[in-house]
Amino acid sequence: MTLPFLYKSQIYTIPTPKSSKILMNALAKLKPHVVHGSLTLSTLDFRLPEICQALNLPLIATFHPPFDSKLRNFKSSTQFLTYQLYAPFLAHYDKVIVFSRLQQELLMKLGVHKDKLAIIPNGVDTVKYSPGVSCLKSQIKAKRLFVYVGRIATEKNVEALLKAWKQLDMGEQSKLLIVGDGPLKPSLEDFYGREHNIYWLGFVADEQKRIDILRAADVFILPSLVEGLSLSLLEAMACGVACIATDAGADGEVLEDGAGVVLDTQGVTTQLKTLLPLFRDHNEITQLLGQKARQRVLDKYSLTSNISQVEKLYQEVLERKNISIMSHL
């Protein structure tokens, strides 16, 4: 079922005035055991607890907005407002799924009780996303392949990577692939092109093609100013790619203790100008980091583990609800 809306984007949704009633009637008819909502900056997020309480339905939320707990730039300050807005209302949900310890700590500082929060990270299909053979490097005549996958938008800080690459002159045998689309792509593409061995692939809808790109890559780079828990980063790690990412959101937590290289969100270009030649010239470093990245995903971020944890949480919430009902009889 699709609820009617006045406006919808990747950032927020404005539902129609009738949406609440339509949703309530649909839930009353469906009678689910559990309602699980993904909170995406919609006024319905604040009405949903009231609706489920009226229908006596257990309610779980997934809350995954990007953040930077250190508030080091304007983008992170803007995202922090989202957390401040939602924190008082999360108490009305039976459980709230967050993706990392850092996100849990941020919400607790804003007054959300620890018992309301369940840490369940994003998960990757580690069979599908795995090391394998790819012909891409030979097709573009690359000895060393560096890859970015994501939106081409301000918060992703892609230009910091592009500046470092252009200033270094990495040589003809090193290529940088930019995979993704977004509002900054047209302007950046004009200044950072093939003459610098930078290839713009745009948005790649075919999943197998994206996997082939990651399997060909030597290094995956994510220079974001704010993040949640990047699924693109986890997919690259699962494919055995050496990863460099900022400590925005939970990405630094994913790469901590040697599973990758963690950058500060301040001065990303300067840091990359040191690291990129090192990764270009030392294959043994990228191989070792790729192995550690793959193992980290197998240990903590597999899709199988994610599903098991969500199922366990459903059971826990249902049992609590049944106990609550019995106590009132």
TrEMBL record:
Residues 141-295 form the Glycosyl transferase family domain. Signal peptide: none annotated. Residues 19-126 form the Glycosyltransferase subfamily 4-like N-terminal domain. InterPro entries: Glyco_trans_1 (IPR001296), Glyco_trans_4-like_N (IPR028098), Glycosyltransferase_grp1 (IPR050194). Pfam families: Glyco_transf_4, Glycos_transf_1. One of its GO terms (molecular function) is glycosyltransferase activity. It comes from the Bacteria. This is Glycosyltransferase. It comes from Crocosphaera watsonii WH 0005.
